[in-house]
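Sequence, structure tokens reproduced for reference:
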Amino acid sequence: LGSESPIDYMALFHVVFGTAAAAAGAAALNQWWERRADALMRRTRTRPIPAGRMPPLQALTLGVILSVFGIGYLATVCNALSAALTAITIAIYIFAYTPMKRASTANTAVGAIPGAIPPMIGWAAARGSIGAGAWTLFAIVFLWQLPHFFAIAWMYREDYSRAGFRMISSNDRSGERSASQSVFFCILLLVIAGLPAFLGIASFVYLAAELVLGGLFVAVAMRFLQMRTAGAARSLFIASIAYLPLLLGALVLTKS
């Protein structure tokens, strides 16, 4: 999307490879940091460290190596801006989001920041700069993560509480707060996700597809608000998984 010329598949490989290495490193560092909490949660206790398949020191070492390698690879093969954005992503994820999970329910919004930077990394690798298009992609992925994680957090609210994580679902047994915020952010996403058509990034065919996908996403979130059951939350989670690749696929296919 950030490329102003035909797709350079070798350049695409380089940015995906470097970003994937850094992402794997960040995930390893996160699992090292949260290894004791992971052992308390049914959802995460089968991860390599709590399950005993990998010693903590090995995970820490692997995380550092992959993170440094990914950043260095992007700096060498792509450009300094993409590497800097990757370093910022890892720093926020590990040193802000991870400890904040025990301190504030705002952790979901903070965690959505590093989760939304990767499209900007690709844009920066392609253009050597970031502009309105990159920030729009950031906003789309940022907003998408909120209903996605609100659904997960409500389904596993007892797990999160057992591990000492502060989520909005922790004191939301009825699901009203989690569901109402999911609806709000799905509606906001419906509006923001239309911007690429008006910025000249994609055609208005994309806008039509975005309105259909966004409308369905809002409808599933509304169902969660009305029913507030584990099944409705799971439906929202599944819908979120389908929504993002379909939306981005439509964006790529209708690129101006």
